[in-house]
UniProtKB/TrEMBL annotation:
GO molecular function: double-stranded RNA binding
Sequence ranges assigned to domain YrdC-like in this UniProt record: 14-201
Domain of life according to the entry: Bacteria
NCBIfam families: L-threonylcarbamoyladenylate synthase
Family annotation (InterPro entries): DHBP_synth_RibB-like_a/b_dom (IPR017945), Sua5-like_dom (IPR006070), SUA5_domain (IPR052532)
Source species of the chain: Flavobacterium reichenbachii
Gene3D superfamilies named among the record's database cross-references: DHBP synthase (3.90.870.10)
Coiled-coil annotated spans: none
Full protein name: Translation factor Sua5
Length: 206
């Protein structure tokens, strides 16, 4: 059964963050708060953990559209091809914030995603997940736990999330009530910005 720990977003406890990081390093799956809905994630470098998430979501790993949660834009060059100044300015304006940006992937993508030409990048405005990623030292692969058929409270109430997911994951973080609106997805992989999904993030940043 999963562990359930409380972390306060205003001042995340060092010890609690270290505990989460250890779970991720050991190949565990973690549910954590973001600036939108709660997310399910694992260490980007752990193949077995990636397979587990794909299985839970019912998708083939190489076809999965998971996003990468980065601590800040300095992680970009690890996985993203060089982008132009206009694109970078949009990212600077929007992040950290409730957006997922689809960007052109480079050759350093983890082997599970080598066939993909693009990558979804997230830098959420949430201290808990940003601190986890910072201490982990590399991005977390993320997917939302939002289920269109689900009772809406599951996405917002950490206790209900724990109840539902406790046998599927290794740790659930209670970071307070989440939102029930997903991130705004914007495709910047081509010359024109394309809004794929309007969510919590305002598209006026374009």
């Amino acid at each position: 059964m999963a562990e359930f720990i409380k972390i306060y977003p205003d001042k995340p406890s060092e010890a609690a963050i270290a505990k989460v990081v250890k779970v991720l390093q050991n190949g565990g799956l973690v549910i954590y708060p973001t600036d939108t809905v709660y997310g399910l994630g694992c260490d980007i470098t752990n193949s077995r953990a990636l397979e587990k998430i794909a299985k839970i979501k019912g998708v083939k790993l190489e076809k999965a559209n998971f996003s990468f949660i980065c601590h800040d834009l300095s992680n970009l060059s690890d996985y993203v091809r060089q982008i132009d100044t206009a694109t970078f300015k949009i990212l600077k304006r929007a992040l950290p914030g409730p957006y997922t940006f689809i960007l052109p992937g480079n050759n350093n993508l983890p082997k599970e995603f080598k066939k993909k030409t693009t990558v979804g990048i997230r830098v959420p405005d949430n201290n808990i997940i940003l601190e986890i990623v910072r201490q982990l030292g590399n991005p977390v692969v993320s997917t939302s736990i939002r289920d269109e058929d689900d009772v809406i409270e599951y996405t917002t109430d950490p206790e209900l999330i724990f109840e539902k997911w406790q046998n599927l994951v290794d740790l659930v973080i209670d970071g307070g009530y989440g939102d029930n609106v997903g991130s705004t997805i914007i495709d910047l992989s081509e010359h024109e910005a394309v809004v794929v999904r309007e969510g919590k993030g305002n598209i006026d940043i374009l």
